[in-house]
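Figure 2 data, in text form.
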Amino acid sequence: MDPIRSSQLPKDVGMQLSASVASHLREQIVSGRLKTGEFLRIDAIASELGVSTTPVREGLLLLQSESFVRLLPRRGFVVNSFSKGDLRDIFWAQAVIAAELASRAAQKMGKEGLAHLQQLITEHKAAYKARNDEQVARLGHEFHRAINLAAESPRLALLLGSLTKQLPNRFYASIEGQLEETFEYHPIILDAIRMKDSDAVRSLMYRHIMGGGDHLVDSLERSGAWGEPLAAPSKGTGRGTSKAPAKPVKSAKPVKAPARSKVAAKPAATKRRART
């Protein structure tokens, strides 16, 4: 196992140490740095991170509940496989739930909420132009969070939150910082919410998040997460990898959740984690 320094631990405010350890190891697994079948020694990880064994054990138990690792009797924790299909499944589930929340929000959001979304879009674009990646990630998160809360469906939002936690924040931040299409999707989603067009909002949000999943899969493939690194895309392709969305019309049809057998297939039109 590659050395893991304590300076690499996530620094999310309020995150428990065990959750920080789990988040870091989760990132190592998803990115392919920790390979399938590799044993994770509690003492070694604790020493490398500069923490006690208790948060490491608790973090590994959390990862076991998410099927990232498994505990073998008398042998210890071992890394489970994590495939492109697994990653696409996570984004598919996020996209279906986030699309429903956005559809409900379209019928409930008032003028104040609409103004807040518009302000977030303006600040988001400014942060992107300034290449302030931290602000880009924060404002993109806040845009989706505001929509999720406006749906007034707390249990559905909680379920979405549990899904988003299965991927480290760094990956979502990468999606926000790399996909220029974000800055086309967000205003169009806002326009559809203004018109209270639930079907159009559902369709756009689903495609928005699935496009983010496609980008992350492409990025991890290029880095060699599932084998040999792929060649970098040719110049002139822009910062994103998916096509920009077309503006919806009032009669836009809702996008139905794809059958489970088609989860790994790329949707007809393509993005991100919706967050609570």
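Caption note: Residues 1-7, 234-244, 246-276 have pLDDT under 50 and may be disordered.
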